[in-house]
Amino acid sequence: MNEFRATVAIVRRHIDRHFAIDWAMQFGIVAAIAFAFTQTFAHPLFPLAIASVLAAASAAERSHAESLRRLTFFAMPLYGRQLARAHAIAPSLLALAIPAGYAAGSIARTHEFPAALLATMFGAALVSTLVALSSIFRDGLRASLYVVLAAIVGVAVTLPFVLQADYGLALSAALAAIAAFFALRAFGETLARYDPLPLSP
Amino acid sequence: MKILRATDVTFVRDGVPLVAPFSLSLDAGAAAEIVQPSTRAASIAARLCAAIVKPSRGVIYVGEFETRLQPPQAKRLVGFVDAGGFEGDAHALRCEVAFRADVWNLDKAAAQSRATEILDALGDGPYARAIALALVAEVALVVLDQPQRRFVGRVRKLVPEAAIVHTLVGATAALSAPVPASAPAVR
Question: Which of A8, A79, A201 sits opposite B40 (nearest CB)?
């Protein structure tokens, strides 16, 4: 088994024309929001919350969930953690459209956007995405709670930066890395435990 | 060598049994069928044998690998054919074969050639395409979920040395039959 080759194949399967359209749409919508509200939402908490909430919602989107639940993936000779890493790459790249779009919209309006805020937004979006991925293999209230949890964790890791603590940016980055690691592990566990059952007749 | 050993296997979700308990033991080159009371139960039984779904009770070994503990190793030995077959067109099939070649680490050209050979032998159609996909890698066990009877014999000709298990819907033990089942599920 060549894990790298399998991972690349799965990532390529996710990154198709629809992915490019989703990325561009997400970028455009967030850029428009930023352009309209960047001066209203001057406090850094607002863009960070927007990034977290949108990233969580985007990762948990139902059509995305259906594609990940396809039986093909579960018939493959891969461990849950290997599948989790491969499945996480495309949503993580998609999540980057949110901070990039916000920065673009903000720059178009005010001609500036702090690099530290952009970096923290990237971290928040990634963490929210990785936590929200586990909601895909749950249904109903549990899935919704995972999305809420994802948004909260995404915002929580940015608090040292928002509260302007000493080394706030570094602390937020470290928290984001730790949260992302555990979120990915949890996603792997979720995949390993998931039983893809046929739909009820 | 035993390719598939299933002992008192069942699957329960939220306290409700979804498959009739079954046991079976299959050598290389042998075949067996698992009879279940509904299409859903038959599909779950097939997925249990293919290490895709983990049994709630009982144990399944594919080769020497226990499906609950070593699913990737077990899946590597299995060619699984879903009841719905493969609905994509010829282009989608070529893409899927290439994808499988990457995941199973096979030579892409050889995999495409093998898929074409299998389709030539089986004739086209969703189920035949799914069989072609399942057999692009060398497998020791073929699991066919609710195939038409003609496909079982044709798969046997394609992979004479493999064990074959297929599911079908029919009169069998009730879903709630006590474990161990009185061996009605396997003929």
Answer: A201
In a domain, B152, yes or no: yes
CA distance A196 to B47: 9
**Would you give per-residue pLDDT tens digits along chain A (201 residues)?**
678 999 999 999 999 999 999 999 999 999 999 999 998 888 999 999 999 999 999 998 877 777 888 888 999 999 999 999 999 999 999 999 999 999 999 999 999 999 999 999 999 999 999 999 999 999 899 999 999 999 999 999 999 999 999 999 999 999 999 999 999 999 999 999 999 999 866
Give the pairing of strands B65-66 and B57-62. Answer: antiparallel
Q: Which of B10, B22, B18, B55 is nearest to B187 (CA)?
A: B22
Q: What is the ipTM of this complex?
A: 0.85
Hey, what amino acid is at B48? L
Question: Is residue B158, in this structure, part of any structural domain at all?
Answer: yes
Task: Compare all CA atoms of chain B with the CA of A192 and give the residue at the minimum distance.
Answer: B71
A125, A58 contact by CB (below 8 A): no
B174 domain residue, yes or no: no
In chain B, the number of structural domains is 1
| Cβ atoms A195, B53 nearer than 8 A | yes
What six digits make up the tokens of A169?
């940016």
Whose tokens are 């570094």? That residue is A170
* Every domain of chain A and the residues it spans: 3-193
What angle, rounded to 10 degrees, do the helices at A168-193 and A115-133 form?
Answer: 20
Among A82, A197, A200, which would you mutate to test the B interface (most chain B Cβ atoms within 10 Å of its Cβ)?
A: A197
**What's the CATH number where B143 sits?**
3.40.50.300
Distance (Å) from the alpha carbon of B43 to chain A's nearest alpha carbon: 7
Cα B11 from chain centroid (whole Å):
16
The answer to whether position B104 is within a domain reads no
Whether B50 and chain A come into contact, CB under 8 Å, resolves to yes
